[in-house]
Structure of Glycosyltransferase involved in cell wall biosynthesis:
Amino acid sequence: MPPPRLSVVVPCHDRMDLLARTLHALAGQRLPGGVAWEVVVADNHPDALARPLVEGFAAPVPFRHIPATPHRNIAAARNRGVVAARGEFVAFVDDDEAPEEGCLAAHLAALERTGADASFGPKFPVFEGGAPPDWDPEGEYFRTDLALPADTRLNPLHWWHAGGRGVGTGNSMLRRATCLPGAAPFNETLGRAGGEDTLLFFTLAKEGRHFIWTPGARVVEVNQRGRLTPDYMRARLARSARHSALFRAAVSDRKWAAWAMAWGIGAAQVAVHAPLYLLKRRGPPSAWMRHRFGIAKGLGKLGLGADLDFVRE
């Protein structure tokens, strides 16, 4: 059997029901003839919960189980998966995502067509219970879709352009030689706080790597009940805003200028959203929730109200 050209890394912890769904979706992927590929499941649970599922899984391509670390650390799981991966391209799929038909093929074709270093695609939500929460009836806060044409160049360091958002490991494919240096491309000190992918992609963008948007590479993400509360989303958005400010400054040649920009934007968000939140607070949640979240994002950039730790679901 030829060595794989593509490796799909799936980090996991304890959501075996969701992991089974992810693996079934991956087993249904089809790549152009002659493209060998594999799936690497990086198990981040001390009891290696995924081993029986992966080793007993019947699939047309190799599915391999890799023990990661004995403690919860998503960055370490990603790193162990990268080390075990044998492909020149490495895709990342989270254990709560199910790639739609043609997802991997679309990413690979885009990278080959453009010569880009990394491809990112949209994530569409489904919800435990069948419907989004009443405070977000359209599921807007659970969806990642930039609505950009194929091959649009992305730069996560841009604050204002749509191409500055939507860049994360979930539903991505990277050219290993240019995007995944060494044995630990993800910073493992961020293993509980998250943001290890944000820091990596900010660093790569600073180095001039070419990122593109691939709308045909779609995944569906399961959102269980623990994610469907406003408090969960507020904490997640605040933490993400904090990551954005911290890591932009970390990669900047003018760190104080980067901090000043982050603080200025954060203060403006609080100044705009706080009065609107108070004004609309008596209405339905869908009318004022975005202002509550706008305050959270502003406070996160200011370093307030953002716990840099795992957000419990």
